[in-house]
Amino acid sequence: MADTAIPIGELSRRTGCNIETIRYYERIGLLPAPPRRGRYRSYGAEDVGRLGFVRRARELGFTLDEVRALLGLAVGGEASCAEVRDLAAAHLKNVRARIADLRRMERALAESVRACDAGHDAGCPLIQALSAERSGDPRASRARVGSPLGR
Amino acid sequence: MADTAIPIGELSRRTGCNIETIRYYERIGLLPAPPRRGRYRSYGAEDVGRLGFVRRARELGFTLDEVRALLGLAVGGEASCAEVRDLAAAHLKNVRARIADLRRMERALAESVRACDAGHDAGCPLIQALSAERSGDPRASRARVGSPLGR
DNA sequence: GCTTGAGTCTGTAGTCGCTACAGATGGCAT
DNA sequence: ATGCCATCTGTAGCGACTACAGACTCAAGC
Q1: What CATH number does residue B35 fall under?
Q2: In principle, which of A4, A30, B81, B140 could form an S-S bond with A124, CB 3.0–4.6 Å?
Q3: CA of A19 to C1' of C19 (A)
């Protein structure tokens, strides 16, 4: 079996995680520093699991700090389930806010492109839309979660 | 009128754009360096328009490079309308891809949270979902546009 | 005239999550 | 002995800001 003494390249292949990223995770303390075979890192089966966990959490959009928290909670048993749930729920809310933000963008963009396709008598409608001031407090959008400005 | 000799703080207030960000835009050449009153930057009405344009384009999610291109095309008349349209259309595609990505996350998260709320007999279902390997090439998602990994 | 406070200046470093090098080793096969 | 690949460390870059530190200018109030 190749379960013991997995070199970093093999770990990368098994998890789909870039070698540089693995070393980065180690540097920031997300993954523990593995033992060495000479100067080479030597991983075990549990590292494949752990890194896989990280990767899947990242795919769900959790930040590295959230992943760190999840890893901490993963070892504690049922007691932490509620905490995990709350973390995920908060994150879900965030994702939904970002979706709403993007959908607003999508509508505005689609509308503009449509206007462009329709008629172009007095200059490009898209440019005009961007040039025109709109009503409302210009600072309002800065506080929004996931706004393209200010994050 | 306060149209002439607008100081940076006033420009910030009028456009809702952070002072540091205005200076940053100047540094990277997105905004022209304004004349100085002594050592202080002195803006005019056209700067308010220009920066407002930038801000609105950013709100639609255009990158600064795209904004730069849009600014260039904004001065050229109707000839550039098609180019603007194409830029916006490409960007729209990108936004839609990001929405699709987020919606996938949303579904997975909502499902997990629901599982958490339902029963918790054998450990936290969310942690288990993250711990379990899924089928398929682990590298597949790395190529996707807007994936949380690899951007 | 002197102080106080607000505004502005430059320059640099930090954020997040990687990614991309450069240049030095290590180990294995031919 | 000679390639060649894998791995090592360390540093710098990305995008789009944001956050200081420390200096300066200017107008108003006393």
Answers
A1: 1.10.1660.10
A2: B81
A3: 10
